[in-house]
Structure formats: structure tokens, C-alpha cells
């Protein structure tokens, strides 16, 4: 594992970081789509210990480190990603129809801060393509639950995604919080969210999670109140879990849209604060997945201590490579032992 981490940081990352961010992601995607890769990477990267097991959405997951939505938008890399050692994988965000996303450039790195700013706008091949990808792996990943993130600006589209993807996944996560998609904010209105969850509840058979927006800059107190209200609605409606949170809206002239979502190190403190606030708001029953800025075992441990059941990461994987999951789990185990 030390070798894999060193190889990534010394050779692979410098090469990938020479490329535009989206090209680097495309290369990674091409490699990870080869399902045979799992035989090579799974042994050095796997790490199990009963003390890491977590009861989560009706599953006993192997460890509390999940992959966040957005890395595998079309659910094409799940077997390889599972072999990296994640406790669960989130595929998507999938929308009913294929989308080409926002104009480029739509993702930039800030290496000194270890962050990314993206304005992807949900590029994905649509629900039919995701259905085909997931059908190919159905029942093959016994130990790693698959979450599929879905979204849309109309309830009917989200219902359609649920109908097709729920039978092929273990948990559905609804993303109401991408900062880069016009119209998505509709479900950040309490009445619209209540209606959306009600309609999903009428038909769903599997656990449901909602991915909330972060506290935005500006009037933090007002944003906080609004998000706590959304969290309360989710709990009252019987939602199983909350993912806290999506990337943080920022202005950035390097992006074609002039604005995007900040992820990585700079948002960790916001994540921890949100987890604390929302845990005390919703009580102990609702699952909380802390998502935003987790890079190390210490970050993960802080999020778990703040009240999260699991953590999710995306940007930490880009900066620290595939060995990051094992590293985090080993460090969590040390903290458990203290
Ligand atoms: C390039 C990129 C694309 C993303 N796409 C999605 C997405 O499709 N759906 C979603 O819910 N979150 C998406 N996210 C947000 C991440 O899932 C996560 O919430 C955010 O990056 C904060 O976590 P991190 O600091 O560990 O990256 C995306 C993030 C990045 C960097």
C-alpha cells in the first residue's frame, strides 16, 4: 500500500496534474472502467477489521469511508472503485435524460489549497445508460453497497430515475444541492422538498438519502436555519440518511460560467460544523454522511466524533490517490484504540 501511495504521489499525480483537470479525469475513467483491474489493486489496498464495521441503511458496511457522488457519473467504474476498499460507492449523479453539462472550462484545481472548483452541471449519459452499466454488475459486489445519486428539476424525472435505478442499487441518494444546475434549487424550498420526498416514499422499497447544500457564504445564520429546516423535513418524512454536504458555491473567473462549487481542504471546517448542527437537530436515528474536505484519518475521525456515521470523499481521492481509503481506515482504527 505504501508503494501504491508513493507511486501515485511521486509519478502518477504529477503527470495527471500536468493535464487539464477534466482530461486527467477522463484518463482515470478509462483505466478504472477496466473491471479486470480489481484483481490487481484489490489485494494491496484492502484493509478489514471488525472494529471498522458500521450499521448503515440496513447494511453492515466494512468501513465508514464512502465514495462521494460525481466521480463515477455513469456508474461505469464501480467494481474497480470497490476494490480500492471503500465501504460503499456512490455512482451518479444520474439524470433522466443525457446532459452535456456546462461549457468548458468547468473544473479547475488549486494545488496550494488542495481544492477543486467545479461547474460541471451534471454531464452524464442519462438513466438508460446507467441502467445498462449497473445491470452488468448486479449482484457481483456482495460486500460493497451501491448508492446511486439521482437528480432533476422536475419530480417526474426524479421518479423515473428512481424507478429504473432502485432495483439495480442498494440505496438512492437524491441530490438537491448541486450549485451548478439551474432550477435545482427548487427542492431547497421546504414545500417542494416535502412534496418530492412524499412522492418518492409512495413508491420506494429501499433506503433513501438526501444530499443537502452547504451553508452558503453571505448570511450564514439564515442559510443555517434554512438547511436545518430541510434536515428536519427529511427526518419527519422518514428519510434514512443525509449527506452533508455538496460543494460550496464560489465565484471563479477561470470557469466559463464564472462560478462553481469549491471542494477539498478549505471546506472541512464547514463540514464538521454542519454535521454537529444537523446531528443535534435530527437526533441519533438518521444516518449522517459527512462529505467535504476529508483527506486524512484525523479529518474523518473529527467528522465521526461530530456525529457522522460515515464520511464520503472525492477531492481527497484526487490529491492522495487510491491508497487514501486504507490510510484513513488505519488512522481511524488507531483513534478507536485510544
Ligand atoms: C468534479 C466534481 C464533480 C462533482 N459532481 C457531483 C455530482 O454529480 N453529484 C453530487 O452530488 N456531487 C458532486 N460533486 C460533489 C462531491 O460529491 C462532494 O460533495 C464535494 O466534492 C465535497 O467533497 P470533497 O471535498 O471530498 O470533494 C462533485 C464534485 C466534484 C469535485
The proportion of residues in beta strands is 15-25%
Number of helices: 12
The CATH homologous superfamily: Aldolase class I
Any idea of the CATH topology? TIM Barrel
- Main β-sheet, in a few words? 8 strands, parallel, barrel
Order of H and E elements: HHHEEEHEEEHEHEHEHEEEHEHEHH
Query: Which CATH-level-2 architecture?
Result: Alpha-Beta Barrel
Quaternary state reads: single chain
Walk me through what this model shows.
This protein is α/β, with parallel strands linked by helices. The chain has one domain (2-337): Aldolase class I (TIM Barrel), CATH 3.20.20.70. It contains 12 helices and 14 strands. The chain has helices at 2-18, 21-32, 37-45, 78-83, 127-137, 155-165, 190-203, 220-236, 268-282, 297-305, 315-320, 324-337; strands at 54-56, 59-61, 65-67, 88-94, 107-110, 115-118, 146-150, 171-175, 208-212, 241-244, 248-251, 259-264, 287-291, 310-313. Helix 6 runs parallel beside helix 7 (190-203) and helix 10 (297-305) crosses helix 12. The longest helix is centred in the N-terminal third of the chain and has 17 residues, at 2-18. It starts with a helix and ends with a helix. The model has no long low-confidence stretch (mean pLDDT 93). Flavin mononucleotide is lined by residues 68-70, 73, 93, 107, 116, 118, 120, 122, 149, 175, 178, 211, 246-247, 263-264, 267, 291-294, 313-316.
Amino acid at each position: 500500500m505504501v508503494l501504491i501511495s508513493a507511486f501515485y504521489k511521486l509519478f502518477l499525480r504529477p503527470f495527471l496534474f500536468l493535464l487539464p483537470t477534466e482530461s486527467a479525469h477522463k484518463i482515470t475513467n478509462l483505466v478504472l472502467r477496466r473491471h479486470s483491474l480489481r484483481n490487481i489493486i484489490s489485494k494491496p489496498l484492502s484493509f478489514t477489521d471488525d472494529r471498522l464495521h458500521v450499521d448503515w441503511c440496513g447494511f453492515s458496511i466494512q468501513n465508514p469511508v464512502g465514495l462521494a457522488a460525481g466521480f463515477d457519473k455513469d456508474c461505469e467504474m464501480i467494481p474497480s472503485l470497490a476494490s480500492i476498499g471503500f465501504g460503499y460507492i456512490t455512482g451518479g449523479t444520474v439524470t433522466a435524460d443525457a446532459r452535456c453539462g456546462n461549457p468548458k472550462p468547468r473544473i479547475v484545481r488549486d494545488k496550494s489549497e488542495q481544492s477543486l472548483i467545479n461547474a460541471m452541471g451534471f454531464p452524464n449519459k442519462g438513466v438508460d445508460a446507467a441502467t445498462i452499466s449497473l445491470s452488468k454488475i448486479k449482484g457481483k459486489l456482495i460486500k460493497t453497497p451501491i448508492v446511486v445519486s439521482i437528480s432533476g428539476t422536475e419530480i417526474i424525472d426524479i421518479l423515473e430515475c428512481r424507478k429504473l435505478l432502485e432495483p439495480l442499487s442498494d440505496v438512492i441518494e437524491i441530490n438537491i444541492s448541486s450549485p451548478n444546475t439551474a432550477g435545482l434549487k427548487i427542492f431547497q424550498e421546504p414545500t417542494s422538498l416535502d412534496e418530492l420526498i412524499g412522492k418518492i416514499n409512495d413508491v420506494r422499497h429501499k433506503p433513501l438519502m438526501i444530499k443537502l447544500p452547504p451553508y452558503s457564504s453571505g448570511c450564514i445564520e439564515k442559510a443555517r436555519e434554512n438547511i436545518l429546516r430541510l434536515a428536519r423535513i427529511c427526518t419527519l418524512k422518514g428519510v434514512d440518511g443525509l449527506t452533508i454536504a455538496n460543494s460550496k458555491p464560489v465565484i471563479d473567473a477561470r470557469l466559463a460560467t464564472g462560478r462553481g462549487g469549491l471542494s477539498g481542504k478549505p471546506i472541512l471546517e464547514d463540514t464538521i460544523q454542519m454535521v454537529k448542527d444537523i446531528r443535534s437537530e435530527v437526533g441519533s436515528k438518521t444516518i449522517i454522511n459527512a462529505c467535504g474536505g476529508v483527506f486524512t484519518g484525523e479529518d474523518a475521525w473529527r467528522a465521526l466524533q461530530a456525529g457522522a456515521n460515515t464520511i464520503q470523499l472525492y477531492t481527497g481521492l484526487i490529491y492522495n490517490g487510491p491508497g487514501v481509503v486504507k490510510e484513513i481506515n488505519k488512522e481511524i482504527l488507531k483513534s478507536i484504540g485510544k
